[in-house]
Amino acid sequence: MNFSSKLLEGAVNEFSSLPGIGQKTALRLVLHLLNQDNADVEKFTFALLNLKNNIQFCKQCHNLADQAVCEICLSNKRDRTLVCVVEDTRDVMAIENTNQYHGLYHVLGGLISPMDGVGPQDLAIQSLIERIKLGEITEIIFAISATMEGDTTIFYLHKKLKEFNIKISTIARGIAFGGEIEYADELTLGRSITTRVPYENFLVR
């Protein structure tokens, strides 16, 4: 793509470095911002800088939060005996949108993937074990994408957690193998949570 302005080219290159944004879409976004008032552009820029500088990870569940403990963990309306284990924040948002789950979460921060150099030590697994040791949790739900990495992670977690006197379940496979939680429609995802099955049953299928 040829540009008449180096400033325009630089801005387009930055936008097109974002996931899923090609140069044509990046150009459209940059030209849109150019047509906005300075106040609107400054508001947009401040929102991004404020996010980058002030966002933090909840010290309990590792979800993204505005403060040390996220609003979900602080809520007295959540079932504190139930913890849903997910890969990342996008999965928390997807499950919350179903309005079918009212427990707490634990965000692993990724999946075990030896090919990518990601091992159990790189995930928030030990902190999950420490939460279970406190004795309040009675059920762990694995809501992890049905991929090779997802199944590997679930299998590893099950081996680590089966020594505890808690129920371990996984969402029903209404989501096809290879499907990711964040892209599942709300109805399917909601049904998968409410019709979850014991993980041991899943192993023998």
Secondary structure layout plus pairing:
Elements: H1 6-16, H2 23-34, H3 38-54, E1 56-57, E2 64-65, H4 71-74, E3 79-86, H5 89-96, E4 103-107, H6 126-133, E5 139-142, H7 148-161, E6 167-170, H8 186-194, E7 197-198, H9 199-203
Parallel strand pairs: 3-4, 3-5, 5-6
Antiparallel strand pairs: 1-2, 6-7
Helix pairs in contact: 1-2
Description:
The strands form 2 sheets. The chain has a 5-stranded mixed sheet. A two-stranded antiparallel ribbon has the order 1-2. With 205 residues, it is an alpha/beta fold. The longest helix is centred in the N-terminal third of the chain and has 17 residues, at 38-54. It folds into 2 domains: 6-54, Orthogonal Bundle (Helicase, Ruva Protein, domain 3), CATH 1.10.8.420; 68-203, Dna Topoisomerase Vi A Subunit, Chain: A, domain 2 (3-Layer(aba) Sandwich), CATH 3.40.1360.10. The mean pLDDT is 89. It contains 9 helices and 7 strands, in the order αααββαβαβαβαβαβα. The protein has helices at 6-16, 23-34, 38-54, 71-74, 89-96, 126-133, 148-161, 186-194, 199-203, and strands spanning 56-57, 64-65, 79-86, 103-107, 139-142, 167-170, 197-198.
